[in-house]
Fold these 4 entries.
Entry 1:
Amino acid sequence: MGIFKRLRDLTMASINDLLDKAEDPVKMLNQFLRDMEEDIREAEVAVAKQIAIEKKFKQQYEEAGEMVQKREEQALKALEAGNEDLARRALQDKKEHQLKYDEMQKQYETAKVNADRLRNQLSEMKDEFSKLKNKKDLLVARAEAAKAQKQINQAMSGFGTDNAAKGFDRMSEKVLQLEAEAEASNELRSKGKDLDDELNALDKSSGVDDELAALRAKLAAKKQAE
């Protein structure tokens, strides 16, 4: 995986296209963020190396510049002291340091341009990562809501079907049958109770007649005694 590849590839169009094909958008979003975090870590290492190169060239060209200035001052002192040969050698060394200074300055400027470019790209990656991370929460909430709605729709799809309606009709008929059987049983029980009541009444009537006959006999006996 190349450095900054995710920044190049992760456009919203490509994200939406991949999410459309994904079986689980939430897992796909989490994978996107993990990939971006990995790329950011790699980019940070690359930027740090480039910054180190930039600083190295800067130090080298600054040291070469200091030597150019130093050799010129030394050549002047040697010439003032009447040592022209020493002054000549100092100027020759100055010339070599000047060449190094010019070369290191070019290298430094190139390294600085590269480091600045990588810094900017890394900053863009972090900004993009932050935006996508914030958007992920919204997309996850939408995905969960959609899943819940789908489950509810599937659960409700069985309501009001022919099978359910037929099942309720059968149960209604069953209840009507049970009610009819209960009513018939109640009627039979009522008829049985009427017969028992009549027989009991007959028994009670027979007892009264006997008592009444006894009283009549007692009354007749009384009259005879008078």
Entry 2:
Amino acid sequence: MKKKTHIKGIILFYIIAVLFRYLAVKTTLLNFTDNGYLIILLRGCGPAIGAWVAVKAFRIPVRFSLKGNYNNILLPFVIFWILPVVLIGTVSSIQESKFPVLLLFTVLVYGLLEEIGWRGFLQEQLKHLPKFQAISIITVLWFVWHLNFEGTITNLIFFGILFFGTWGIGKVYSSTCSLLAVAGLHSLNNFFRHGLHRTELILIAVLLAIWISFIIWYNRNYKTIAANRGISDNKFTSAEKH
């Protein structure tokens, strides 16, 4: 049976996501606060709010999960949140004599708010489409959501980054179903406010290597355990029948 596409739900989700983004970055609405952490979160909350409203309004069967396929929430939280905070925070404390733990967790929550919309909702709604088509749609919508339409080389590069990011983060989400995992991956670039230099690129490479290795290792072991458990259950059932 072909999966139904909730076109109205997607439209409502996107209107709300763009509206909140516009209010946050193109108006003076956020002038009421000087709290930089709160401003960061308000700039990224649109996709999460849009997804939640669309799901409720049209009763769309979407399962938002922080832990995903993992046995408990602690494992993805440690690997995809605590690890980058400790690693990047330690390097930052060495270079700048401060450990920006609040900023790092704020960036992770920002990534989570976006990923609830882009992966948890939109990717799920488009997953029955051909992969390239789904990736292209998400990329275009994600790019437009940023409301930066300057015809520059930087923007063209940014579009390409979003395309490969949609592909890569999408693969992680398909593999883990964990919003914590994709939020960590999403936040890699946002961790570094002063640009990507040698140290930052090394940190990104290290984290990606650890995360990808962990996902592959866990999936292989999880499937093996699940398969063995299935065999044991079948043997137990057969023994009962006899």
Entry 3:
Amino acid sequence: MQDKHMLMIPGPTPVPERVLLAMAKHPIGHRSGDFSQVIAEITADLKWLHQTTSDVLMLTVSGTGAMEAGIVNFLSPGDRVLVGNNGKFGERWVLVSRAFGLDVEEITAEWGKPLDPEAFREKLEADSQKTIKAVIITHSETSTGILNDLETINQYVKNHGEALIIVDAVTSLGAFNVPIDDWGLDVVASGSQKGYMIPPGLGFVAVSQKAWKAYETAKIPKFYLDLKAYKKATDKNSSPFTPPVNLMYGLQAALKMMKEEGLDAIFARHRRLTEATRAGVKALGLPLYAPDEAASTAITAVMPTGVDAEAIRSTMKKQFDIALAGGQDDLKGKIFRIGHLGFVGDRDILTAIAALESTLQTLGYQGATPGSGVAAAAKVLG
């Protein structure tokens, strides 16, 4: 059936009808007084979502662009940085950092396992000369479904005193409690097609006063991603370059929806959906890739045995028009990932688990009792 496509991937995520209708409005001039009012409202609501009184800047980029802006604005070539690497995106920040001439020290963990905060503590406490300029962390490692312990790692960074913490919160912002001011996070990057419930195209960077101080001595060249230009324009309810007007209409509507739901309710919903998904998958006898204690609230990664991961994805798409994400790099063909991020509710999880049960039967899987997955998920949701 046409127009029944169901996104259950970590991004893009489903877009509410209210947001789609807002984006369908006729664009207006991005230098007009009316659009300045839109920017002012969005900026205030972004600060609410980020739980900060500091700057939250909008860029016409992907999440990777937001992270690159977060790196290049506050560091200089040769600066020593610690980069957590336990998945595809941690690996990416290693590559980005090296591309700009930073002195990178990786703190690694096996894919599917969380970063060890003690490894950061040891490096930071040993740095008596304060040569470490930044710690770069992926909070929710979407490639594996791992949620790294940002709060503890950040505390060790704060104890160091000099280093900035630069956070990839692309799939945790809006799905997990990230209280920027309470934790004292310096640079937090995110992207529109995740918890924000709008299509790809906007990136966001929250910046602390400590980070702005570092900006004054940072020497990596930048122009389009120069965050000072964005701050100067945002302070005047404007933008330094042409923004995606209709996408911002959508963002305005999405943020209104989020405020109506409330932060605590949003975070509780994502926890509930995560627990229900994991319970349903476990009841079907399928091994989860990430442990319960470090599970991302954005996606659940599954490493099936006795049935092919790509066959599951293909059958789900063909029979039910439900999109699941696959594995990346060495995990390609070995795992599939169920997204439960953004505009996702209880009904979506029950539908996905029911479709997964049917798919497993179609593929001849013998490891589950029919109905067990839906029953386990429904028990959590009930």
Entry 4:
Amino acid sequence: MKSYHQYCSVARALDVVGDRWVLLIVRELLALGPSRYTDLKGGLPGIATNLLADRLRSMEASGLVERYEAPPPVGTTLFRLTDRGRELQDVIGALARWGLDLMAPGPDPADAVQPHWTALAGALLLPGRLGPGAEVVVGIESEDETLHMTLRPGAFAIGRGAAPAADVTLTGTAMLVGAVLSGLLTPQEAVGRGLRVDDPRNVLPTLVGAAADTTA
């Protein structure tokens, strides 16, 4: 691990998380929780296998991630964030907000776009405007992948598969889903571009309106 050799909390933090791919590995584990090595590799297009292994070893040594053996029927090694690693959620959220303006032009032709990235961005960017004890479940059907995110005041969870009773379901490309959840497009604009919205309780305008307010 390289060091800046500066007695400064910013520099010391960057000694741990400043290497390329580290914060994106944190992103992956925030998005979908405990993950297999192959899950992480699939969510990080462009990373070499040996580099991912090296980064995971460094992150374990720094106390950011830990590996454990999942019991049957999974029966494989999984990686998860430690409590210390999960403290980086606010850092990832700040980067997501700061980077929104850079998303406005749309993806470059070579850019990968994955549905769970858009789900995490939405979960991080949607502010805590839910009342005490409230809960909203957002289903996402995109790029042959089905996800759901559960939003509560100050907290979220993202899972694979369909939610049994989603309050609102978004069906379309990951780019359109992400644009709506982040407030870059209104639901009406996204529908005009091909997004399908199933929102019987009219929950979405409140959620994404709040997201737009935080990025104004």
